[in-house]
Amino acid sequence: MIPVTEMRAGRLFEGNGEPYQVLDYKHTKMGRGSASIRLKVKNLKTGVVTEKTFISGAKVEPVETEIKMVQYLYREGNDYFFMDPQTFEQISLATKALAGKEKFLKEEQTVKILFWKEKPLAVELPITLVFTVTQAPPGIKGDSVNASFKPATLDNGLEVKVPLFINIGDKIKVDTRTGEYVGRVS
Q1: Most-buried pick from 19, 43, 85, 89 (CB within 10 A)?
Q2: Does 2-60 match 65-124 in CATH topology?
Q3: Which segments of the chain have a pLDDT < 50?
Q4: Within a 10 A sphere around the Cβ of 18, how many other Cβ atoms?
Q5: How large is the greatest C-alpha to C-alpha distance in the chain, in angstroms?
Q6: Any long-range contacts for 23-30 (C-beta under 8 Å, 24+ apart)?
Q7: Cα 97 from Cα 113, distance rounded (Å)
Q8: 1 neighbors 13 (Cβ within 8 angstroms)
Q9: Whole-angstrom Cα distance, residue 100 to residue 155?
Q10: Cα 137 from Cα 139, distance rounded (Å)
Q11: Sheet of strand 110-116, all strands in order from the earlier edge strand to the far edge
Q12: Does domain 128-185 have CATH number 2.40.50.140?
């Protein structure tokens, strides 16, 4: 059992037979009473975000998960298909399970999938990924009075704001948490 006072963002636990991931943790103490712990959690099966409140002495059940490195293959309708490189087993995840991370996927890319009771729940991407710019308007020399960013389309179809000096064919790093430009890769 895990004391709720040890819960922090990213931690996993099981409640009512469902796997949850902590998104936010708040500890509040009011007057003479006992402290309460308020957790903002995401149900990993359904994707629903809710708040749960516990008293400070409460404990939760740890969730036993497995992480597998898999290779992204293709998309068909609302399903995304991955392959385990050791067993060649194909795994499919619905768009809802990817929670917005599908826009960063490229064919043959290696990602981590979180499994609970042998069922795939979520995809875990690296913090930054490298993409190639396929479309970008030319930067106008001297146009630095305003914010010096322009839209660029990447090789996976994602559109990102990039600095004016970025051209077609350049490789750039993108933060997968925010979808923002991080830097150019040489």
Answers
A1: 19
A2: no
A3: none
A4: 15
A5: 65
A6: 23/49, 27/56
A7: 10
A8: no
A9: 17
A10: 6
A11: 90-94, 79-83, 65-76, 110-116, 119-124
A12: yes
Strand ranges for the chain from DSSP E: 2-3, 12-15, 18-28, 36-43, 49-55, 59-60, 65-76, 79-83, 90-94, 110-116, 119-124, 128-135, 149-154, 159-163, 171-175, 181-185
Residues 6+ apart with CB under 8 A from 6: none
Q: Which CATH number fits domain 65-124: 3.20.20.140, 3.30.470.10, 2.60.120.620, 2.40.50.140?
A: 2.40.50.140
What's the CA gap between 24 and 4, in Å, rounded?
A: 12
pLDDT at 132: 92
- The DSSP H or E segment spanning 30 is none
pLDDT in tens, 110-126: 999 888 888 888 888 88
How far are the Cα atoms of 126, 132, 139, 149, 165 from residue 135, in angstroms, in the given order?
Answer: 24, 9, 12, 14, 13
CATH architecture of 2-60: Roll (2.30)
Give me the half-sphere count of Cα atoms (radius 13 Å) on the Cβ side of residue 51: 7
Query: What is this structure's pTM?
Result: 0.69
Look at residue 98 and give its three-state secondary structure: helix
